[in-house]
Structures are given as C-alpha cells and as structure tokens.
Amino acid sequence: MAVRPHLLFGDQLGPHFARDGAGGADGPDEDAPLVMIESRAVLRRRRFHRAKAHLVLSAMRHRAADLGDRVHYVRADTYREGLRTAGVGGGRRNATVHHPTSHAALGFVRDTPGLTVLPARGFLVSHEDFARWVAGREGGALRMEDFYRDVRRDHELLLDGDDQPAGGRWNYDHDNREPPPRGARVLGAPRPWLAEEDDIDAEVRHDLDRWERDGQVSFVGEDGPRLFPATRGEALAALRRFLDHRLPGFGAHEDAVLAEDPWMSHSLLSVPLNLGLLDPAECVEGAEQRYRDGSAPLPSVEGYVRQVAGWREYVWHLYWHFGDDYRAHNKLNHRRGLPEWFAELDADAVTARCLSSVLAQVRRTGWVHHIPRLMVLGSRALQSGWNPREVTDWFHRSFVDGYDWVMVPNVVGMSQYADGGRMTTKPYTSGGAYINRMSDYCGDCAYRPDVRVGERACPFTAGYWAFLDRHRERLERNHRMSRPVAGLDRLKDLPELLEQEQRRGSSPP
What are the Basic and acidic residues biased-composition ranges (predicted)? Predict the structure, then answer.
C-alpha cells in the first residue's frame, strides 16, 4: 500500500502530530510525507490581532523549516486551493489528518474526498473516554471537579497510593486565592521566558506589512515583537523556565492582578499548548516531578495541574459534546453589538482603570491571564448586555491563545452565561469590591468601588446591580444567586442607579 501524505494544521505543530501510528490506525503512515498549507483567506475573513497573525505564521514557517524536505509547504489563497496544489484529497492522492480543533475544520476535512481523519492528539483524554465518562454520570451532571478527579486517577497524577490525592486533598483552590501583596507594584516572580525574533519573524512581518498595505488584510492590536514560543525548542525552554523558576510561586496569587505586572507567576504556556508545540502530559508530569523532588509546593502544583488536566481538557470535550449550535446560545437575550472602543482595543477611551489597563495589555500583547479575561473583560460584556456571539468572536480574534474550541465554551458557557447554566451554576460577574480586593486597580481610579450612583460610581458596581435587576426573575431561582438578587430590595437608590446605567449605555466607562 502506498504511503499516504499527512496534513498538519497550523495548531498541530509539535512532533506528536507527525509521529506515525506504529502499524495502528491512530497516526500517520510510517515515514509519511507532510503537507502544510498557509491560507491567506483565513486572515482576510476576520480582523485578528496582529500579534496573533504573526505568531501563527511564524510558528508554521518555523515548523516547515525544521521539517526540511519532508514537508510540502504551500502558500495559497484558500485551503482548498492549497490541497489542490499539494495534490492531495478531492480525487487526487489520499491523505491523513489528525482530528482538527474546530467544527468548521472537521466539517471541511470530512467533506473532502480522500482525507482520512485520525484520532485527536494534543489532549490527555480521548473522545471515546470522554463519551464513556458522560455515559456514567448520574442525572447527566457534567461537573468539572468530578471530571478532573477522574483524569487524575486515570493518568495517575498527584496520587499517593490507593487512588488518594497527594496531600490528602483534591483541591487547593482555597489556598490559591490570595490577593496581591499589600503595597506591591509587582509580584517579584522570576521573569518568564520571552522570545527573541529571527529571520523568519522578519519575513513574516514583511509579508503582513505588505498585505495590510495592499488592503488584503486588516488587524487590531499592536505589532510588537513576538513574545511567545514559535518552535518546539522555544516551547520546551519556556516550559523549563516555568517549572524550575516560576511554578513555586504560582499558586497563592494565581487569581491576583497587578497593573504593572502583566505576567505575575503565570506559565504563559497556553500559547504553545494551543499551537500543539507542547503536549499536556509533559506539562503536568513535569509539574508533578517538581512537587515530588521538593522544589515546588503542592498548592502551586495542584493549581497548575488543575488548569491543564482539568479545565483545558474539560473545555475541549464540552466544545464537541455540546455541538456546533452551542455557539448560538443566548439565554439572557443579550443583543447589543460590541461598541467600537472595545472592538478596537481603544484603552485610551476608557476611564475605569481596570478596564483601561486590561484593554491596553490586550492591545499590546494579545494576552492577559484568566481573571482579567473573566472578571474585567467578560464581566463588562455581560453587565452591558453585549451579544455573546460577538463577544466570543472578539476573544477568539484578540487573544494569541484563542481558538474556536477554547473560546466557545469559555465565553458562551462561563463568561457570558449564555447557555443559562448548562456549563456553570451561576453568572461570573461582580461589583467593584471583588476587583478592589484582588487587584491594585482601584486605588488610582476616578471611580470608587463602593459607590453606585453619581460621578464616582464604579461602572462594575453599578453595572452589577443593573444586571441583577434586568434578570431578576431568572436569577432569583438560582440557589447561588438568590441572596444577591434579594439585595436589590435593600437599595434605596436603585431607580437612580438604573436610570444612570441606561444613560451610560455602551459608552466607554
């Protein structure tokens, strides 16, 4: 039988995506030639962050350079045109491809004659194992905590004999919710690994400049130097830097935010993970080894393992389990379009220090960690009633680690509560008190977190109460929201607050 070429998508760039199936059906043929396609149409259809476009093209071209003569790298207008140029699929030479990471890509390869879809790689849990886990859920509840514990057991992660969790606890969340150190402007963590550009980056920047100048593409965000790994070697260096120097201090302040410290102790490894440059197993096993050898405390290690082996896996599988129509859910009937200042990352138009600072970091780097994403950007969108489909698309385009499978569950299900509670038990939004407790944003802000009405009224505090009032009937039936909703009746200034928020609308807060 002739050896079939194997197709690599732009987020399947690690060696595990090209490793053969050793005679089985789960990988490419032995010594299969590889095909990679760089499609201009992907950048033309949507306005991505400039840093994201640069990173993905740089990573693809670096991978092609590493593969040398084994790869046929095609630059084409569309993906279908690229397949024709490569001579695979569509009645030409048969080829294989690992399960893609979006519904659209999966539909495309399944509809292309001659392409055989192999099992997904780059995740700890297979689709079949997740389906079995779902089938075993009593009452159909798909709790992340239950899933996470089963992943730990199945992969023998942080266990101490007889399937018991290391340290006697499965969950160290309580230890990992400390506010930033009082008076500190930076956390003081060892610096993260950051990239140094090379000739391939210069070529990418030249091409992006030319395409933008010719009107073929348009971007948001700044064209700063590439910060994140674009090669397997860089990804491994970033992983080692985190595990050896930053993991010990990660846990306690993983939910804290400092305006002048964008990285804190976060790993920044979601970027190479989602490009396929790292395998999640090497990340969590490396973290566990640091606990076993005494170089990192258990709460920090468990917190990181939970992010990778718990939440990342959970989101990946819910994306497929919920189906492609999940992205259209809008149970709260939020219809407002994204305002221009938000869509364009215009941090300078915003007075609220938290939102201005976070938007500025997104504009500059295409990345902020999970708390600014959820409790500043997502919370502002939820309180303002913006269309969750537009919010999802914005997160996908604006973040260097944003992909369809990442953002649809995270935004529709968690951030915007657009599925009505199918994924999470309550809306994740708050007043300014939470932001004040977990960050240093409020001290120099023109607004006050404890003021609801008037010139100094915090947009998040007023927006929180207006959101609760707007959805009072739905939320008062939620056992986790009934008490906050009941608090509306104690607000003597509620009419003035609602009138104020109606006037504010979608103006920059």
Answer: 171-180
List, edge to edge, every strand of the sheet that includes 34-39.
71-76, 34-39, 6-8, 95-98, 115-118
CA distance 117 to 318: 20
The three-state secondary structure class of 492 is coil
Give the other-Cβ count within 10 Å of 97's Cβ.
25
The span from the CA of 427 to the CA of 418, in Å, is: 9
Separation of alpha carbons 7 and 27, rounded Å? 11
- pLDDT number for residue 91: 75
Q: Residue 297 corresponds to which tokens in the numbers above?
A: 């405390």
Strand-pair partners of 38: 75
Residue that the structure tokens 């707007």 belong to: 470
- Judge contact between 79 and 41, C-beta under 8 A: yes
Express each pLDDT in 416-433 by its tens digit.
Answer: 999 999 999 899 999 999
Report how far Cα 376 is from the mean position of its chain's Cα atoms. Answer: 15
> Considering only CA atoms, which of 507, 147, 488 is closest in space to residue 312?
147
Residue count of the chain, please give it. Answer: 509
First to last CA, the chain: 64
For residue 122, which phi and psi values (nearest 5 degrees)?
Answer: 95, 10
Alpha helices in 112-262 (DSSP H): 127-135, 144-154, 199-213, 232-241
State residue 137's pLDDT score.
87
CB 353 within 8 A of CB 442: yes
Please tell me the distance from the alpha carbon of residue 29 to that of residue 21, in angstroms, as a whole number. 6
Backbone dihedral angles phi then psi of residue 93, each to the nearest 5 degrees: -75, 135
> So what's the pLDDT on residue 380?
97
Q: What is the pLDDT of residue 23?
A: 58
Give CA–CA dist 277/63, Å, rounded: 10
Amino acid 391: pLDDT: 98
Q: What pLDDT was estimated at residue 89? A: 85
- CA dist 124 and 210 (Å) reads 40
Q: How many CA atoms lie within 13 A of 31 on its CB side?
A: 2
Which parts of the chain have pLDDT scores under 70? Answer: 1, 22-24
**Does residue 34 sit in helix, strand or coil?**
strand
> In degrees rounded to 5, what are phi and psi of residue 115?
-100, 125
DSSP assignments along 398-458, one per residue: H-TT--HHHHIIIIIIIIS-TTSSSS-SS-----HHHHHHHBSSGGG-SSBTT--SSTTB-
Coil, strand or helix: which one is 195? coil
Single out the residue of 501, 492, 428 nearest to residue 459, CA to CA: 501
Give residue for tokens 């500190």.
Answer: 184
What is the biggest distance separating any 2 CA atoms in the chain, rounded to whole angstroms? 79
List, for residues 228-278, the tens digit of each pLDDT value.
Answer: 999 999 999 999 999 999 999 999 999 999 999 999 999 999 999 999 999
pLDDT score, position 22: 61
pLDDT at 162: 77
